[in-house]
C-alpha cells in the first residue's frame, strides 16, 4: 500500500514554495498582517506541538510525512494565514482558523485509532487500506472549515505597486511578505447553511500531491465518505463524518472559555464579556422570546431584556465558561452595561426601565423591569421575529412615556474584537483602501481601517450624560394608542416559552443544525405527529448545551432522564397504554428497523407546516 507514496516520481514534482531572502518588511498598519510561508506559520509553539502530535498519530516514514502530510499542512497554512475561525464565537482570534483546524485534525486521527478502518473490512484488507483511510481523515480535518476564507470572509492585500487587490483562495495563496487585512462579510442576517463546508471541496486539489490523489481515488468507498463529509451531507459521511463532527465539537467547546477570541489578551473588560454572553444566549435560542415568561421582548428597534432573571443567566453563563471575578449582584451587571453606553439609558435615570407588555392574543399583560439594548447591538446574526403585541415604556407613576433613542454611540458597541463585527450592524466594518481603489464590489474594499483598529482590551469611553439627548415624556392614559406596536411575526410553537429543549430543537431545525426527515435525523414527521427520536435528540441537546449537562450531574443516563422528564412535564406528548415512548418502523428498500420516539402533536409546531410526513416511517402497532 505504501508503494504508492514511496515510488519514484516519474511525473512532475509537486510545486513547493521556495522563498528567497527578502529585505526586512516594515511593520504593517494596525489590523494588517504579513503573509508568511506555511512553514513559518506552523513554527508557532502551540501549532508546532500539534503538528508533532499529528505526525505521531499517523505513524509513517519521514519521507512520506515530508512529501505528503507536511506538504498538505504547509499548503493549508499558506491559504488560511492568520484568518479567524469565527466572527465572535470559537477561535475568533488572529490565527484561530489554523489553530482550530490543527486541533480538529489531531483529534480526528486519535479517535480513528479506536475504530476499524475501512469499516467492515476483511482482515486482509485492513493492512492494505487503513493508512489510506487515515490519510483521508487527515485531509477532511484540514478542509472542514477552510471554505470560510472564500464564502464567509473578504480579504485584500497590497501588491508590489502598493495597491490593494481582492484575494480569492481559488487562485492560490497571497504573495509572501504582502500586507493583508480581512473581515467577515456583512450578511444582514442571511445565512446559507453548509456553504463554507461545500466550498472546502473546491480546495481539495491544492492539498494533494499527484501520488496521493491517485491513491485516494482507488478506494471509491473512502472517496464517497470524504466528499459527503466535506459537503456536510446528511447521508453518506459514515465514520469519517462522525469523527470530524466529534472533533470539531470538542475543539469548539474547549475554546469557549475566558480567552475566547482574545488569545493575546485574556483579561478582557467586563462589559465586553457581559455583552458577548447576552449575544450568545440570545442568538443561539437559549432564551425564551416574545411570550409570557420570556426573558427577551423584541420590537422594531430595541430588545427589552428582563432585568434580574437575564442578568442572573448571564452571570451563570460566564461562570460556567470559566470567567473569574463576576459580580454577584445582577444590578451591578446592568450598571456596567449602562456605564459603557451599551444599553439605552432609562428615561428617569437609574439602571432599569419599566414597561407594560401586552399580548392581546393571549389576553395577557404584565409590568416588568427591563434593561434595553438596540437590536443592532444584540442580534449579531440578524434581528429575529418581533413581538406581535404592545410594549409600553412607563415612568414610576405608570404613565406612558416616549423612550430614549435606540441609537448607541459607535464607540460603545465596540465590546467585541475589532475584526468581529456583528452582522446586524448597518454598515460593514471598514477595511483600509487608498482613494484610488474601486469599491468593494469591483474587487476591493471601500473604506479605511483606522476606525476599526481599537484594541479589544480597551474599554470604550463612557458617553457623557450631558451629551445624551433629552427625553420627551408624554403623559397620557394607557388606553390611548400605544407608543409603538410590533409587526406580526411568523407562527410560533406555544411550547417554546415552556421548554428550553423545545426552543433549541426548533432553532436547530430553522438553521439546519437539527435535521428533519433525513437518514439518521433526530426529528421526523409521522402521520400527525412530530417524532423526537430518543435518545439521539436528547444526546444532541446535551452535547450542544454543556452548562445544562453539567448542572444535571456527571452521569449521562441521569442527564438524559432529567431532560426527558422535563419534556414530559409539558403534557404535550402522545401516550398510549401509559407509555411515553413509541416504536416506529423504518421500512427501507432492503430491510426494516425499529426506532424509539417521543410523539408530540404536529399542530404544536406551526414552524414545521412546510414539512411532509416521512413516507418510510410509520407507527408500530402494539
TrEMBL record:
Record-annotated Uncharacterised domain positions: 35-349
Protein known as: Integrating conjugative element relaxase, PFL_4751 family
Pfam families in the cross-refs: TraI_2 (PF07514), TraI_2_C (PF07515)
Residue ranges, compositional bias (Basic residues): 1-10
Region Disordered, annotated ranges: 1-34, 402-471, 476-495
Domain Putative conjugal transfer nickase/helicase TraI C-terminal: start-end pairs: 499-617
NCBIfam families reported for this sequence: ICE_TraI_Pfluor, MobH
Amino acid at each position: 500500500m505504501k508503494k504508492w507514496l514511496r515510488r519514484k516520481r516519474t511525473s512532475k514534482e509537486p510545486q513547493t514554495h521556495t522563498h528567497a531572502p527578502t529585505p526586512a518588511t516594515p511593520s504593517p498598519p494596525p489590523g494588517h498582517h504579513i503573509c508568511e510561508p506555511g512553514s513559518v506559520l506552523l513554527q508557532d509553539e502551540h501549532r508546532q506541538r500539534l503538528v508533532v502530535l499529528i505526525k505521531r498519530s499517523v505513524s509513517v516514514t519521514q519521507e512520506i510525512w515530508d512529501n505528503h502530510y507536511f506538504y498538505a499542512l504547509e499548503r493549508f497554512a499558506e491559504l488560511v494565514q492568520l484568518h479567524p475561525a469565527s466572527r465572535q464565537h470559537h477561535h475568533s482570534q488572529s490565527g484561530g482558523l489554523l489553530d482550530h483546524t490543527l486541533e480538529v485534525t489531531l483529534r480526528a486521527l486519535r479517535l480513528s485509532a479506536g475504530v476499524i478502518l475501512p469499516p467492515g473490512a476483511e482482515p486482509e484488507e485492513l493492512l492494505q487500506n487503513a493508512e489510506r483511510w487515515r490519510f483521508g481523515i487527515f485531509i477532511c480535518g484540514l478542509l472542514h472549515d477552510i471554505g470560510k476564507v472564500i464564502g464567509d470572509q473578504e480579504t485584500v492585500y497590497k501588491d508590489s505597486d502598493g495597491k490593494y487587490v481582492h484575494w480569492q483562495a481559488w487562485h492560490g495563496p497571497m504573495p509572501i511578505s504582502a500586507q493583508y487585512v480581512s473581515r467577515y462579510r456583512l450578511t444582514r442576517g442571511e445565512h446559507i447553511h453548509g456553504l463554507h463546508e461545500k466550498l472546502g471541496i473546491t480546495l481539495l486539489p491544492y492539498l494533494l500531491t499527484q501520488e496521493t490523489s491517485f491513491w485516494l481515488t482507488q478506494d471509491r468507498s473512502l472517496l464517497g465518505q470524504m466528499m459527503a463529509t466535506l459537503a456536510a451531507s446528511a447521508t453518506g459521511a459514515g465514520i469519517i463524518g462522525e469523527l470530524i463532527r466529534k472533533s470539531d465539537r470538542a475543539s469548539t467547546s474547549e475554546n469557549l472559555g475566558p480567552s475566547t477570541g482574545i488569545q493575546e489578551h485574556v483579561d478582557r473588560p467586563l462589559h465586553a464579556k457581559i455583552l458577548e454572553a447576552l449575544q450568545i444566549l440570545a442568538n443561539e435560542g437559549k432564551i425564551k422570546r416574545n411570550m409570557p415568561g420570556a426573558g427577551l421582548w423584541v420590537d422594531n428597534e430595541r430588545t427589552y431584556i428582563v432585568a434580574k432573571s437575564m442578568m442572573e443567566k448571564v452571570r451563570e453563563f460566564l461562570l460556567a465558561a470559566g470567567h473569574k471575578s463576576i459580580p454577584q449582584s445582577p444590578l451591578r451587571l446592568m450598571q456596567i452595561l449602562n456605564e459603557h453606553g451599551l444599553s439605552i439609558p432609562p428615561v428617569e435615570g437609574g439602571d432599569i426601565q419599566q414597561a407594560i407588555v401586552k399580548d392581546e392574543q393571549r389576553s395577557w399583560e404584565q409590568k416588568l423591569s427591563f434593561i434595553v439594548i438596540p437590536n443592532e447591538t444584540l442580534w449579531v446574526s440578524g434581528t429575529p421575529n418581533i413581538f406581535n403585541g404592545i410594549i409600553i415604556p412607563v415612568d414610576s407613576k405608570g404613565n406612558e412615556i416616549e423612550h430614549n433613542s435606540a441609537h448607541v454611540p459607535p464607540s460603545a458597541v465596540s465590546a467585541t474584537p475589532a475584526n468581529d463585527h456583528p452582522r446586524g450592524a448597518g454598515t460593514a466594518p471598514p477595511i483600509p483602501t487608498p482613494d484610488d481603489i474601486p469599491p468593494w464590489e469591483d474587487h476591493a474594499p471601500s473604506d479605511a481601517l483606522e476606525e476599526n483598529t481599537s484594541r479589544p482590551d480597551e474599554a470604550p469611553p463612557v458617553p457623557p450624560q450631558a451629551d445624551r439627548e433629552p427625553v420627551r415624556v408624554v403623559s397620557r392614559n394607557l388606553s390611548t394608542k400605544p407608543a409603538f406596536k410590533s409587526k406580526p411575526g411568523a407562527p410560533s410553537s406555544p411550547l417554546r416559552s415552556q421548554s428550553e429543549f423545545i426552543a433549541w430543537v426548533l432553532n436547530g431545525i430553522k438553521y439546519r443544525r437539527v435535521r428533519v426527515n433525513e437518514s439518521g435525523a433526530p426529528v421526523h414527521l409521522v402521520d400527525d405527529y412530530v417524532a423526537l427520536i430518543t435518545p439521539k435528540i436528547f444526546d444532541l441537546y446535551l452535547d450542544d448545551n454543556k452548562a445544562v449537562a453539567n448542572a444535571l450531574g456527571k452521569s449521562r443516563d441521569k442527564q438524559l432522564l432529567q431532560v426527558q422528564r422535563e419534556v414530559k412535564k409539558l403534557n404535550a406528548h402522545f401516550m398510549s397504554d401509559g407509555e411515553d415512548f413509541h416504536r416506529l418502523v423504518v421500512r427501507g428498500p432492503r430491510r426494516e428497523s425499529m426506532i424509539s420516539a417521543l410523539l408530540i402533536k404536529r399542530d404544536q409546531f406551526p414552524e414545521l407546516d412546510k414539512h411532509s410526513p416521512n413516507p418510510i416511517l410509520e407507527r408500530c402497532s402494539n
